[in-house]
Design brief:
The protein is α+β, with helices and mostly antiparallel strands. Helix content is 33%, strand content 22%. Helix 2 (97-117) packs across helix 3 (123-138). The model has no long low-confidence stretch (mean pLDDT 90).
Length: 376
């Protein structure tokens, strides 16, 4: 039976597989009247439930204190207030559009996982897994922060050029001479809108990969994180690896539960589908997967138990991020950026109220005074 797609068009025309519904049969557009939810998860709660222990908790390894994980309920982690909220031109803000987009994928996730545990294969299963892959690659803080860093470099370089030619806007003149260090906060709305291009880019990548599901038959559960979709050049060793290097033989890993992981490869065909199930019985292979998962974590790594403490701590100091370089050729400005594993960036707060602006000015004035008093 085929359910006619609505919101997703021909792309969502996927047959229902018995009890597994493709997420495209649900229309994610809903009315917003009377809806006041402000707790927005960037890690799906229903996804995290696949990594809970018998008490319904996961071990949360925070990047700033990986040696002291906290057992927590999935509903209590992986969220920010108003993470997806957008200011409206007529005033007020919209809080639910993006949450509604994720909802169909999260709705069908439990039935998808059960079918994968039963080692089934179907277009609906492949479609739903790629849906979860896509949102867990594009909506997370690691991705939004990367976009913000690129936009920050662009805005800073533009202001520096305006200063050089004497056309710095009046509101920015007080920052003259400081534009290489003054905090530059990016409007969160811009990083939300950029997710559309991220969706397309990741979708194109999936058409270059074939997928398989690996079933963990060891005593060591798979880890996951707040940035669980890991892609890299498969021929590179762990420590020489560049995150998101898609120039050669590509490998993708994404933990589905503590006992299952999907692996994609540019060397596996057919592309864009899950074509087989396999068992992993060697603990060394599970540890190797867990090292990669911990390496790609951003703010937190999540575990079903504490069997991977050492692995998490070994990779907590570096995260997948970018570095940027501004190159100038006459009147042309180029911003060159590349993926790296490096220290977690500290993004500046976006200044959208006079009160925030006043606090920033006071902080900068205090810092300047300290430099003067120290004789710098």
């Amino acid at each position: 039976m085929t359910q006619p797609p609505s919101y997703f068009g021909k792309w969502g025309n996927v047959p229902i597989d018995g009890d597994v519904r493709p997420f495209s049969i649900f229309n994610p557009v809903r009315g917003g009247a009377g809806r006041t939810n402000r707790k927005h998860h960037f890690i799906s709660v229903t996804y995290m439930e696949g990594f809970t222990d018998e008490c319904g908790r996961v071990q949360v390894y925070r990047a700033e204190a990986p040696e002291a994980p906290l057992p927590m309920q999935p509903t209590a982690i992986g969220y920010e207030n108003h993470y997806y909220s957008q200011k409206l031109p007529e005033g007020g803000q919209e809080n639910h559009r993006f949450e509604d987009l994720w909802n169909p994928i999260e709705t069908v996730w439990p039935e998808t996982v059960r079918a994968l545990q039963a080692r089934r294969l179907s277009p609906a299963l492949s479609f739903n897994v790629q849906g979860m892959l896509t949102i867990m690659r594009t909506r997370v803080p690691a991705t939004r922060d990367r976009i913000a860093l690129i936009l920050e470099a662009k805005l800073r370089s533009q202001c520096q050029v305006l200063e050089e030619i004497g056309k710095l806007p009046p509101g920015l003149e007080r920052y003259a001479g400081q534009l290489d260090t003054v905090p530059v906060g990016i409007n969160p709305h811009e990083t939300l809108l950029a997710m559309e291009d991220e969706f397309k880019t990741f979708g194109d990548l999936c058409f270059r990969l074939g997928f398989e599901v690996l079933h963990n038959r060891t005593d060591i559960p798979f880890l996951t994180s707040d940035n669980p979709v890991c892609t890299y050049e498969s021929r590179e060793s762990l420590l020489a690896r560049t995150p998101y290097d898609h120039s050669g033989d590509i490998e993708l890993i994404f933990p589905l539960t503590a006992r299952m992981l999907v692996r994609g490869s540019s060397k596996r065909q057919p592309f864009n589908v899950i074509s087989r199930h396999r068992d992993v019985t060697d603990p060394r292979k599970v540890r190797r997967f867990n090292r990669t998962i911990a390496q790609f974590a951003y703010r937190m790594t999540l575990g079903q138990d504490r069997s991977s403490d050492a692995v998490v701590c070994a990779h907590a100091s570096l995260v997948p991020t970018i570095n940027t370089e501004v190159r100038r050729h006459g009147k042309e400005i180029q911003i060159v950026w590349r993926h790296i594993f490096g220290p977690k960036p500290n993004l500046s707060q976006y200044i959208d109220t006079p009160e925030k602006a006043a606090r920033l000015e006071a902080k900068m004035a205090s810092a300047a005074s300290s430099l003067v008093s120290d004789g710098c």
